[in-house]
Amino acid sequence: MAQERLRDILPALPVDFFQRYPEQLNRPLREELAPHLKAGDQRSVSLARWIIRDWGGIKRGVQAIPEWMETFGDFNEMIITAFIANSGTTRISSWSKLLAFANHENHAIYDARTSVALNCALRNLGDSRQFYMPLGQNETINDARRRVLNDVPEPRRPVGYKDYIELLNTAVACKLSNSILAAEMVLFANAPCVARQFVADGSEQRTP
Fold this sequence. Notes:
single chain; mainly alpha
């Protein structure tokens, strides 16, 4: 169980830490893990594995985690900026989780749910931007992903993490959200509903 595995890594975690609703756990969990993640020791690597594999549900590619953590060190922003530039969208669902846990004030999780929900919303607003969409594990999300990709009249070069963070910060600046973490959580929580409606609207438009 994920909670038990985390307690094995962090035995001093408060006994009642997980006794709250999931939406109330996100911020405290990141704040609790951040200093340990930045410590640059073996426990940091174990926590990174827990975040990606146990909490995030990503089982493949975990062999890259020790190298990422060696690169990140104490998660200095200059190092992170260089890493993002070099990585592009490769394994973005995994490494963005580490950035978001290490510093939730400046970074957010970028995955299938957040990117598909964002693209569906942008399509509905008539915005031509298209964010790169990793393939997800949820069929509703993947159905919307296919529709977004099929609706493009000509191939577009998708934008990625940097633009995603800029958009979330814009939402905060416009007082649509009080933090990029809150904006990320809204995207994630509403993604299945947004995706389902987006696919349904497309089906209605195709019906003669």
